[in-house]
Amino acid sequence: MKLSEKQLEIIRIAQTMFAKNGFEGTCVRDIAQEADINVAMINYYFGSKENLLETIIKWGIETYKLNPSQYESEEDPIYRLEKMVEHYVSSKINNPSVYQILISEASIRKRKINEELFTELRKHNIECIRRVIEYGVQKGTFNSPINAT
Question: What's the whole-model pTM score?
Answer without folding.
Answer: 0.77
